[in-house]
Target: Glycosyltransferase
Amino acid sequence: MSAPFTDRPADAGTSILLVAFAFEPDSGSESANGWNWGEGLKRSGCRVKVVTQGRLRPKILRKIDRGETAFEPDDFVFIDRPDTMAHHDSKTLFQLSYIAWQWRCRAVVKELVRRQPFDVIHNVTIGGIRFPAFCGGLAPLSVIGPVGGGERAPWPLIRPLGWKAIATELVRNAAIGMTRIDPFLRLTYRRYNLIYVKTFESRHVLPAGDRHKARQHFGCSILPDRFAPMKAENRTSTGAPLKLLFSGRFLYWKGGYYALTALAKALEKGARARLQMIGSGPQSEEWRNLADRLGIAEHVDFIEWLSQPDYLETLRSSDALLFPSLHDSAANVIMEALANAQPVICLDLGGSGIMIDSSCGFAVPCRGRAAEEVIGGLADAIVTLDQDRARLRAMSRAAHERAQDFASCRITPAIYTPAPA
Model:
């Protein structure tokens, strides 16, 4: 749960300018975070202006035309990314594109502020703590975040994933360490009065002189229509296989290796379970081959892509989410699972370990434990849910209740409380 903010009267007339690179309705991940944050503010009575990417204009205006949002056309200013970087698959070019777009925003924001001062300017970034932003200091309260990316995976859990994962983590950890001394990032965070961080690990990565300005908030929020109503006891009946779901990009750090090996061990212990793995990515073939080697291919369904309605239907027909990510700062897939009454089996790393408690799932301890011990903990959680369906039903109710902590209605003007000097 987010750390509490200092109470102050919620001023419904608060004017807020959101600088949101990712602000796409009816989508997932980062874009959903930006859109839901803005919707929450708008529905709470704030006067909200949004600066976002030009490519999102058609989808946003269609949403407005259908009357499916509190926003109006005049609430948006669209800025295109540099043409030479607008369409590419390179991660480096994407990062440069993002930084160039943020720089373009500064001149636009300065002009907007000149015409109409705002109480708050909030850079809702792409969520990475290692990316600069340039609109700090242009309003009485300048806010950035929520940012994450300072989370690190324990080395005993990285080693079984192979040399590529080890090399990638070494580079990533070096980049995290550079955040404290990067002059552009030091200047970025110095200009903001309030810094939202997704986890306390990311707070520790901030330059020492700026950590006092940090507040913990996951940045994820769920719109009312994403909550599934709690139904009468409709869980899988005793004796039927437990239906598990894994969803996300097929990247080594998302934990597909641990999901599959834990399922294999749970089946060895007598559990009846089936796993649907939804997604695609670099590890797709590797994980399929792993399922074959473990002898569990008949218990695993690989699904490359689903539309949002089909995904929600699949999620709601499952029994639990199995998502052993190694360093997600705040996984939307976990919040959607909770909103749809799905208990979650995860690792106590990054944001997952804060989101999930013993009432609504299992956050398996990792620190100081070998990979085999962690796999055993995940397997035990699967066995427990399979063999104790009463507990599964209780966790389902608790998951739905826990999701209320992440509802978009909690995004109100009161959340913009400046950090003490």
